[in-house]
Design goal:
Length: about 230
């Protein structure tokens, strides 16, 4: 079975990004419950860490998108499910960009600007922060649903190739992810988010393994059973 050396960098990008994504989330700052003024003060104090964590996440999603672009090409862009999967992941990256900008940059910047505000302004700002928090949650859920859909779409071609097991794992992971995400109502808590990314990351690592040389080529994908 032939190996295309161009696949190896893509596999490394997907593998590294998937592992580092979970690590980055471990360092995600969390504000303790308190009054609006106390919460804003905590968010303002964690501004630098917030920026580093969310900036890293944006960079890692760029790596994921680049790596999966190669994977989609290897599956065959003439396959509708392959194009659908890539479109889902691309839209997921847009949703992640929105969520990370709001969570890691807009929210801390607002907190810093309101650090010395009078109580009346802080109370009014609490409503704005609630709206921003809700937008972050919804964008994050949208991104994860789109990623799960991409996983399912990309697993379909593998079912007719010599990597049928990877395809079954991908479909199972995608369905499980959709069930978890859509059932997380109303908030997707950090521990649940890490679990979701761990499941998604397991599939990503399977794809990374394929691209690193243990996987399938387009010729193998064209081998139909029988």
């Amino acid at each position: 079975m032939s190996i295309d050396l161009a696949d190896r960098p893509a596999g490394l990008m997907i593998g590294a990004a998937s592992v580092l994504m979970t690590v980055a989330l471990v360092f995600h700052p969390m504000a303790e419950p308190g009054s609006p003024a106390q919460v804003l003060s905590q968010i303002a104090a964690a501004r630098l860490v917030d920026g580093i964590v969310h900036g890293t996440i944006i960079g890692l999603y760029i790596l994921l998108l680049a790596g999966f672009a190669r994977f989609a090409a290897r599956l065959g862009l003439d396959r509708p499910e392959t194009v659908l999967g890539f479109a889902c992941l691309a839209l997921a990256c847009v949703a992640v960009l929105g969520a990370t900008l709001l969570d890691g940059f807009v929210t801390p910047d607002l907190a810093v600007r309101l650090a010395d505000a009078d109580p009346g302004r802080i109370e009014a700002a609490a409503t704005v922060m609630l709206l921003v928090s809700t937008a972050i949650q919804d964008l994050t859920k949208l991104a994860l649903v789109l990623q799960a859909a991409a996983t399912i779409a990309w697993s379909l071609p593998l079912l007719t190739a010599d990597r049928r097991g990877t395809g079954v794992v991908g479909i199972g992971a995608g369905v499980l992810l959709l069930a978890i995400i859509l059932g997380a109502n109303p908030r997707l808590m950090p521990h649940l988010l890490i679990g979701v990314l761990a499941i998604q990351g397991a599939w990503n690592l399977c794809v990374a393994a394929l691209l690193l040389g243990w996987g399938t080529t387009r010729e193998a994908l064209d081998k139909q059973p029988g």
